[in-house]
Amino acid sequence: MGFFPVNLPSIMVAESDRHDLLVLAMGGAGHSADEADNLLYELGRARVVDDQQFPPGVVRMGSSVLVSIDGGEPQILRLSYPREQGNNRVSIFSAIGTALLGLRRGQTIKWTDRDGKPHEVAVYSVGDEEHG
Fold this sequence. Notes:
By secondary structure, this protein is of the alpha/beta class. It is built from 3 helices and 8 strands, in the order ββααββββαββ. The strands form 2 sheets. A 6-stranded mixed beta sheet has the order 1-7-8-4-5-6.
């Protein structure tokens, strides 16, 4: 599935997450080149914020997020690294995972997959279990 975002909201990424994700994307294991390119694009447009200054309520690695996908019922997803397993976990390399990175409560992002089908995710709330 492709990731072709439209009407992009502003996003921010914690400095440590950016570093880890750049290393992961450049490593080439566990994801396709297109998935890595999609993530690198989002990292490139994100405002990078020092970890100590990173505000609560912004989706980062490990965040649990209450979202609606394509207008569906709200559900909780956890943004995860590809190696992590468990219920409701979405890989940062999935289209939905890449889309969620850096969003805040109340933001939405739209994208079109390679088949031309539009998608949208709306963020209702963000919890941050791993980072305080």
